[in-house]
Each structure stands twice: as C-alpha cells, then as structure tokens.
Design goal:
heterodimer, A: mainly beta, Immunoglobulin-like, 5-stranded antiparallel β-sheet, 11 strands, B: mainly beta, 7-stranded mixed β-sheet, 4-stranded antiparallel β-sheet
Chain lengths: 112, 115
C-alpha cells in the first residue's frame, strides 16, 4: 500500500475556476510536500508544509494539513491553462536518507 | 530556480546491454537520488547517495544497479545487465541537505526503453 496517495485520478476545470486536490497519508510525518509535474518534465516543488503547520500559501496556491486525519489539500485559485499538470503529494518516511514517498498523483486539466 | 540536468533524455537499448544514465545535480547540493517511474505508476525511490556512498536503497535497487559520482562529475546510474522490467523513466534529484523535510530538485528524466 502507498504511504501517500491523492484521492482522485483526474480533475478538469475551466480557466479562472478554482480546483482542490486532496491527499491522504498513512504514517506520521515531519512534513508534507506538494509537487507538480508537467508533461515531459520532472516534478517541481510547490509547497512544503511542516507537521506543526496547518496552512501554507504560495501565490495562488494554498495547502492545508490535518495531522489528526492524516490528510492534506492543495487548492489553486484563478487557474490558468499552464496549471495543467499532475499534482503529487509527497511525504517523508522518517528516514532522512530515503527522500520522499510520492502518491500516484492527480491529473488536473485546465481548459480555456 | 536550481536546475538538475539529465543526459540523455531518451535511451533505447537491447536487453542484456549496459546503460549509464547521467545526472548533473545542482552545484552546491550534497545529496543525490534516483527515482524510477513506470508509466501510470507512482514515482518510487531507488537510492540516495552522499559523500561518495550509498546511504539508503530500496528493494527496487537490484544488484545490477550501481551509482557513483567520481570527482564531482556526473552522478550516474549504471544498469548492467539490463532487463525488460527496467524500462521506465528514471529521475535524478538532488538536495542541499539530507533531512526528511528537504526540498528535492528533479531533472526532467531519462526515458529508458529496454527491448
């Protein structure tokens, strides 16, 4: 079973709308990170939210973290076509050397 | 932002041959990683490398795999011999420190096809 997983395979929205991707995880964490992967590119970090934080913002992005339910969400407001990508949540596994454990990702498609 | 470069972007080889995937990590980073992503599946950790040594490896990091970074040059993943199931996109990443809540910077990946 996966240690981190997004709750939906795919979402579609129109430009200007908001979209929220949800993620659940199975272990205690130090931090949860949201990454975006565009077609043909490697993942790029969007937000890192630590276990003692409940919310983090980065421009049009807002991440929340609920350690009691072991879940997180990433919201994108005023979406643009270039936001089209796969969005992953990633958690540490408590072993610093192992890097991150990624979910399968949610494909977000933003249409004009 | 910081860039990780991977060379080549695509590689096609016959089963049983050796392949070397090259990664040029962010210049001041100290920790290097390889991840494997099969189409439609999640990205999975292979190995972490620091100070010339493998720090941690997963069960996916088979005996046929090896990593090195000789004299601060490319960080490489070598597979010898290759098998059909090695076909995947391999992503290199680097980080400044090795803490579990550290940001990883990824390259664009090398798509390996083993025939």
């Amino acid at each position: 079973s996966q240690l981190a997983e997004e709750n939906l395979w795919a979402l579609s929205v129109h430009e200007g709308e908001s979209v929220t991707v949800n993620c659940s995880y199975k272990t205690s964490i130090t931090a949860l990170q949201w990454y975006r992967q565009k077609s043909g590119e490697g993942p790029a970090q969007l937000i890192l939210i630590r276990s003692n934080e409940r919310e983090k913002r980065n421009g049009r992005l807002r991440a929340t973290l609920d350690t009691s339910s072991q879940s997180s969400s990433l919201s994108i407001t005023a979406t643009r076509c270039e936001d089209t990508a796969v969005y992953f949540c990633a958690t540490d596994v408590g072993n610093y050397a192992q890097g991150l454990t990624f979910g399968l990702g949610t494909r977000v498609s933003v249409f004009p | 932002g910081p860039k990780v470069l991977q060379i080549p972007s695509h590689q096609i080889i016959d089963m049983g041959q050796m392949v070397t995937l090259n990664c040029d990590p962010v210049s001041n980073h100290l920790y290097f990683y390889w991840y494997k992503q099969i189409l439609g599946q999640q990205m999975e950790f292979l190995v972490n490398f620091y100070n010339g040594k493998v720090m941690e490896k997963s069960k996916l990091f088979k005996d046929q795999f090896s990593v090195e970074r000789p004299d601060g040059s490319y960080f490489t993943l070598k597979i010898q011999p290759t098998a059909l199931e090695d076909s995947a996109v391999y992503f290199c990443a680097s980080s400044l420190e090795g803490w579990s809540a550290e940001t990883l910077y990824f390259g664009s990946g090398t798509r390996l096809t083993v025939l």
